From TrEMBL:
Higher taxonomy: Bacteria, Pseudomonadati, Pseudomonadota, Gammaproteobacteria, Lysobacterales
Superkingdom classification of source: Bacteria
Official protein name in the record: Arginine/ornithine antiporter ArcD
Classification via InterPro entries: O-antigen_ligase-rel_domated, WaaL-like
Span of domain O-antigen ligase-related: 223-375
CC per GO annotation: membrane
Pfam (any one): Wzy_C
Amino acid sequence: MADPVHWAGARPPELPPAIVGWRWAPAWILAYVALLFAPGIAETVLSLGAITMLVKLVLARFNTGARLLSDPAWALTSVLFAAYWLPELISAIDAVDPARALREAAVDLRYLPFLWLVAAAVASAQGRRTTFGGLAIIVGVWTVDALLQAISGTSPLFFAIDSLKVAISGHRTCSAEEIAAVDRLGGILGPCNLKLGQVIASFSPFVLYAVGRRFGRGGWIAATAAVGIVVVLAGSRASWITFALVLLLSGWRMLGWKRLLGLFAAGLLALVILNQTSTQVHQRLERTAQIVGADLAGVDTALSGRTRIWRAALCMVAEHPVNGVGARGFREAFPACDPQPGVTTSWGYGPALHAHQLLLEVLSETGAFGLLMWLAGAALAWRAWTFADGAARERARPAMVALLVTVFPFNTHLAFYSTFWGGLTLLLAALYTGSLLAQPPRDGTVLDSR
């Protein structure tokens, strides 16, 4: 039997350093999202944030105290990056445009330290409050701005941005042709970057969860109505599906199934009213109704030319099954696979730029290898969720819902290998990983995380 005196004098095992994140990291995340109306500037913020994170990591090597991230968070963010980036690299081997594919892969290396930065931003409770709360405020402001545009015809935020650009450079943000052709709300992103619906729908969980926690069921319903109106008027039917999924995944916890069914019924009634009062919504619904037509042309018209694009994507998959035509090589490969060459397209002149569907984009541009990598990343992300405890799931829930609805495979999508949508998707992945696998300080003390 062990000597009790010996055990009494033994030193307790040393606990590992606490995980506190980095208190300045949320500023980079919020600046990046807030500047999406200027993609070039937002991209610069992303790159500078990645460089800053690398410097922070070098300095942290000499610090044995508080850590930026937990080991599982380091691992999962790195694995999710690899699942996204390795298909790019392998696709460049025999891509339609090898130089561009290699350039895309080289440029996208910056996403790895950026993902670490994002995960560090939500590694502490204060960081999560700042980051998630800041995202909720940004999207809330954009929603109010879009509602004002729906009422007055002008987005106050975009008007201010455009006026500032004219004062500085003498040029408008969008051309007269782009402004004249606009058929939906552009909000702060403007009439020449009509992605407001997709962005707000994907980031809406941060608003709904924040309002629900602070104002309860009534506040959640009011926020749902405001965001829902903007998503519908923004015109993207893909964003309608995305937002419906957000309501399904978050609403049952807030309302219960019976009230949630009532909410969806009210939403359908609102859609009927908007169909009668909004020309843009009426045109979208009228086009959607053509999908019931028996011929392929009617379906293609209802889907804005998507069936033609998807058939071309399947052709690319058949001709390049292993590693695809190369990341961002869809437009170069499209003419050779166009099932209707010489016919005027539903989207205008020129080739399709991407597959408009996640699975087909990955298969056509990065092949079976790319799809396997994406599936492996999804499986590991899901495994982390299933093994997490209730507290971890609760703190990661807004990011989880946002990521899940953004990559929902039975929907049409923006290009995931583009800078705009790829950056936002990886941002959501890192927010999910960092918040799910965060570890609080050992004893609740406030630690220096500069």
